[in-house]
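The instructor's notes for this session suggest beginning with a concrete chain rather than abstract definitions. Hand out the sequence below and ask the class to guess, before any prediction is shown, which regions might be ordered.
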Amino acid sequence: LDSVPWDQYESWRQSDTYSIAVNYVQYGMDLLHPQLNYDGVSENYAQLELQIVPYLSALVFQLTGTMTPVVPRLLCMLFFLGSAWFLYRLMRGISGRWPALVGLGIYLFLPLSMMTAHVIQPEACALFFYCGGVWLLWRFQQTRRLAFLWGASAMTAVAIMEKTPVAFVGLVFLYVLFSLGGLAAAQKILVSMRYNAHEDGVTIQVCNNYNDEEPTWETAQLGLKHIFSKEILSIFTAEGQQFFWEALPSRFGWGAVILGCVGLFFAVRRKLHFYGVWALAFALECVTIVAVIRFPYYLVFLLPLCGALSAVAVQSLARLRLPLAAVACAAVACAAVAVTTVQGNLALWPQTQADPIIAEVGQFIQAHTQPDEGVAIGVNNPSYLNAANRRGYRANIAYYDYIPTGPEAEVTYFIEHGVRWFVVVQGWVYNDEDGAYRTYLREQFPVAATGTNCVIYDLQGE
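After discussion, reveal the predicted structure:
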């Protein structure tokens, strides 16, 4: 729990999330205005998910007077355990107690589950609200009590604000409403949201009110131009297929993947349509989003589905006419899951260790600069700035139109916008293949400090 956020597993994402919590404490507790440490010396507001974990962490920081990664890691673990409770309730209601316990064990100890419960990212929080929404939706289908539907809607809405891909669970909502109320019930959900694709992204228009006449709409913009484009066919490319071939066994294990597929087969055979539509929804998420972005942690929303389908597989195998053979098959399947899960966790474990270069450089920058002094750093990974708890810019990334390119023009821009120090890590600058950037720094600015893995130039020195 006390390992630093800049470890070797998604250090960028973890350190960003942790820095937002720290910045809440340092620059103001405004939930809807999260601030990052890069791309500016002050007021680095970012368009991000709803910052539940960073904000709760900041509240604890203020109460205790200490800022430590123990707090967000513990919050993420608690959110993950809460998602496991919701999932167990769902599996027990559909498959019974013992299959549900098997599915719960699989969900808890899959390699991606272990990492999700440990890392400082929004996925564990999203899983909590996502699993809670799915369980309440199933309860609504069984009881038709509107309180469950309202609860499912509220929890799913928060889950979507945490991670947009959760929106695919809307297909399960449509199925449930259609199964209970027919086309008229589903139509009210369909008319409440519509998507218009265009060259800059996707416009989401959300129904502000709905009656028998014309609905009125509020419009919001989403930056999904890379997804709703020709890249949506990435699943048919060698790169897209290679990603799943490598990510599924390393994050789930072949045993869990195969058992989940067996469970899907039995779910379809037994007409467990709730699970079938759920699986279809996140198969679409994998095709349209995961195959394009290709970040393994985007597979996280398959974790509850894998556990639930494994419970179906165990229950169905136990019901076969050859009970001894069925029990043997179930035992072999569970053993295979256990072996591949252990292998996956052992493979991922080294990535939970701190990145020594980021830690050393961060401490060195912190020791030789002041908190109110801007820092430019010659790497694309902002974890170095986050480790130093300093604000500034990533140099030479050629990403923003408003920042000029070229060593002299860019450094001049940095100086004009409050940067005092330039840090060169391990003797190189990002995208500086010909060494022109490093040469310019050496010739124009004095060295303020030299560390084992970095050099700090004084941009305001003679």
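Then share the key points. The chain is about 60% helix and 10% strand. The CA atoms of residues 31 and 55 lie 7 Å apart.
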